[in-house]
Design goal:
There is one protein chain. The protein is an all-alpha fold. Helix content is 70%, strand content 0%. The N terminus is likely disordered.
């Protein structure tokens, strides 16, 4: 693959016709490969560029034929933050995403560690249950779960029905971590036990440092899910505007500014920006964790 992507080397003037033909084919192949890469990059990038440029346009220029703003209206972002409730939505989303991610990672690691490294009766059955939970859509149990949180615990109108369950693990996170932990050789764990480490200390001192890419991948998946979650806040927090998140509040914002597309696009950029920044700084660990997951087991 490296040879394919490298730019063809210039041939000397004394090169034979066969060598020149081979070089010409290599040049055409190099152009074709990079053209597809550029086209794919533009396909995924242009929508974000369009949203960003529209967010910096004036009210009259937004969604017109102009692609570049006549005047760069940076004040659109200040107007979005001045919208009543927007900072509250931001705070609620941050609490939901960060707290939910921490609880999911902390609760999923011990379960994944046990399923990956312990030998006990019923381990395969437990793994089948985890996979079965991954196949169960949340919409199937939304009515009884809502009745439980709203009627029994009186927590409707808050985000706690979405945050508290994350303290008991997540099926997808457990599965992903278990697959990653299977790639860690058992010899490291045996050496730690020989040195006198118990299971908990082995997990903390040996397994966790080696599992950082897998943990990062799980944390990013959970953070992105919570940050973009619309269904959960709509079910549990819709009756209380003080508990709305950005994804749900953005729908209300669009209703208030349905003709101000520049402000709507500015709000969209502010919602997307944290996710893009987090992925930009953590993409190496994320890609490594996803790549190594599933090598064994």
């Amino acid at each position: 693959m490296t040879q394919v992507l490298q730019k063809p080397v210039e041939l000397p003037a004394s090169a034979s016709p066969a060598e020149r033909t081979a070089r010409r084919k290599a040049v055409l192949h190099w152009i074709a490969v990079h053209s597809l890469g550029v086209a794919a990059a533009l396909f995924f990038t242009l929508p974000f560029v369009f949203v960003l440029l529209t967010s910096l346009m004036s009210d009259s220029q937004a969604l017109s034929r102009d692609l570049i703003p006549d005047t760069w209206e940076w004040g659109n972002y200040a107007r979005v933050f001045d919208t009543p409730g927007f900072l509250t939505w931001w705070r609620n989303t941050l609490i939901y995403a960060v707290l939910g991610t921490v609880l999911t990672v902390v609760s999923s690691i011990p379960v994944a560690y046990a399923l990956a490294k312990f030998r006990f009766r019923g381990r395969n059955l437990a793994m089948m249950l985890v996979i079965s939970m991954m196949m169960l859509p949340p919409q199937v149990v939304v009515i009884p779960m809502y009745l439980f949180w709203a009627k029994q615990l009186d927590l409707s109108g808050t985000l706690w029905p979405l945050i508290i369950p994350m303290a008991f693990g997540d099926a997808f996170s457990i599965f992903l971590l278990r697959q990653f932990l299977m790639t860690i050789p058992n010899e490291y764990l045996d050496a730690a036990r020989v040195d006198g480490c118990g299971d908990v200390r082995t997990l903390l001192k040996v397994v966790l440092p080696m599992a950082r890419p897998g943990i990062a991948a799980v944390a990013l998946f959970q953070f992105f899910y919570a940050w973009n979650d619309y269904f959960g806040p709509q079910i549990y927090a819709s009756e209380n505007a003080g508990a709305w998140t950005l994804s749900y509040g953005l729908e209300s914002f669009k209703g208030m500014h349905h003709t101000d597309w520049n402000l709507t696009m500015a709000a969209t950029v502010l919602v997307m920006a944290p996710v893009i920044v987090v992925f930009f700084f953590a993409q190496k660990a994320f890609v490594e964790g996803v790549t190594l997951t599933g090598v064994k087991g």
